[in-house]
């Protein structure tokens, strides 16, 4: 189970009290921060995200509404005496931007900061025992990248009655969970399927960043549990969307339909729209299980 | 008359809903922005400051709580289609920081941006018909600068009864306002003091930035109408103040007393203090006309 907290959801200029993009994805005891618009450190405090659990920050691209809050967050982590290493994933030039700021203030961070430049093509960029994170390029006005977070395949569950029946010693439970068969002392083979039960599937979340409508992206997140897709414009402004390498809510819904996502979240709303009800309607008419990514709400994946 | 709007007043890490330093000083139809901590563009909208009147931005130093909101503000001005030139005054390295951000996003601002590096010693850095702005270096951990804003000397007022009595033609009023005497057609000299009245003095505001307690600063703003002085710490933490090149509220009050300021405003509060009442008390016991610089309040100078 993953928890996706929307810290902010606006595009470009902050408006209607909607600060620009930032999301916090909780997987077990880790918080993965996705984008970091101006004011994200204040939103982290406001929505009680535990900053000490943020060890990985993923920046999709270097338009300000996606990263102008990063240097403030890093600096505040330093001032708070953080000692745990921090990993930043972003377009390669981001490293230079961070360093210029740190040099300007003669800042020595009290923690190790590792910078990972995004790869050119679909690749796994980090993993731990619980989750793996993949990165893929999307088409926007400047280099831009989306991310897929996949819980690792969960081990099979032991069938308590079956192991009792076949008298399987406890020491074999680990290999049973990995899917292996059990061989009795008499040499009989008991198939794994008789002794274990399939666990729930690992969950997955895709953040497809700022992107033009591009069905070819579906290959990266087919069958994903939640797809977050930008929805900068309404259908009325589709020309503007295409021209500026953004998408409409209807196009986001078409992608969700094509990639067989279980649920769609819309975000990155243009400051031209105050009421987002109609925008949501344009999406649900194509893909029913759609919601607006609302600031302060945590969506369970 | 000047109007000083406190947009934010905290130091270092934003806390207790107090974002870091930013002030907007209104002189006639111009708004001078002083420092620009993270979130300043949101505070400008919140407190209804007219962004189109901000043509000059003064950055005291490159600790993040004083300028991390600058690039966001500049970018948003561009996205809003600003065409009027913008002047930025700051430590020389700030120009590099801004340019790195603009290059990262391939941003072409639709307005001309002029960068003015702070001078090494007390100097006038800009002026118009109404006001002049002076800059002075202070002692902090990194290069840091304060500013004095002085309304220009107002012209003398015509004494309506006197000019009637001495039959001064209207065409001479301009030179009378400049303080010149009037010579009659008979060659008699009427002294200016008989024909005009002294106008109210031009007002002045000093922003003394982040600084260690330093009485030598007084020469830059003697007799100022309002002195804003940092007050990061309380007396209890005076050692910490000195060590970190900051001041206590009592020290700020001592400076106000020594420079014969008419009023003192305290700001840049450490996140360690939630209630600021005692801090204010420590200052008023030295210099009575002291107030906390409260977010959202406009102080008339």
How does this structure look, described?
Two copies of one chain form a homodimer. With 301 residues, chain A is of the alpha/beta class. Chain A folds into two domains: 254 residues, 4-Layer Sandwich (Metallo-beta-lactamase, Chain A); 41 residues, no CATH class. Chain A is built from nine helices and 18 strands. In chain A, strands 6-5-4-3-2-1-18 form a seven-stranded mixed sheet. A seven-stranded mixed sheet of chain A has the order 7-8-9-14-15-16-17, with helices on one face. Chain A has a two-stranded antiparallel sheet with strand order 10-13. In chain A, α8 packs parallel to α9. The first copy, chain A, is globular, with a radius of gyration of 22 Å. The N and C termini of chain A lie close together (6 Å).
């Amino acid at each position: 189970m993953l928890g996706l907290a929307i810290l902010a959801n606006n595009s470009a200029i902050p408006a209607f009290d909607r600060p620009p993009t930032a999301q916090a994805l909780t997987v077990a005891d880790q918080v993965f921060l996705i984008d970091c618009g101006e004011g994200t450190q204040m939103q982290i405090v406001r929505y009680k995200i535990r900053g000490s659990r943020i060890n990985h920050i993923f920046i999709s691209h270097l338009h300000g509404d996606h990263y102008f809050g990063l240097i403030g967050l890093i600096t505040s982590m330093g001032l708070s005496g953080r000692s745990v290493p921090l990993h930043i994933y972003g377009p390669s030039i981001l490293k230079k931007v961070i360093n210029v700021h740190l040099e300007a203030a003669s800042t020595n961070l009290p923690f190790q900061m590792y910078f990972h430049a995004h790869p050119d093509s679909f690749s796994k960029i980090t993993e731990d025992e619980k989750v793996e994170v993949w990165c893929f390029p999307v088409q926007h006005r400047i280099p831009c990248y989306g991310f897929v977070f996949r819980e690792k395949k969960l081990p099979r569950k032991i069938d308590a009655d079956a192991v009792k029946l076949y008298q399987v010693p406890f020491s074999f439970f680990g290999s049973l969970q990995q899917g292996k068969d059990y061989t009795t002392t008499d040499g009989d083979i008991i198939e794994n399927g008789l002794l274990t039960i399939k666990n729930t599937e690992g969950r997955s979340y895709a953040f497809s960043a700022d992107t033009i409508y591009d069905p070819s992206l579906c290959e990266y997140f087919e069958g994903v549990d939640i797809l977050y897709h930008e929805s900068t414009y309404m259908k009325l402004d589709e020309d503007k969307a295409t021209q500026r390498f953004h998408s409409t809510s209807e196009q986001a819904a078409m992608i969700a339909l094509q990639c067989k996502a279980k649920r769609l979240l819309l975000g990155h709303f243009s400051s031209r729209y105050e009421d987002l009800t109609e925008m949501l309607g344009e999406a649900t008419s194509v893909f029913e299980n759609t919601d607006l990514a609302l600031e302060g709400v945590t969506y369970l994946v």
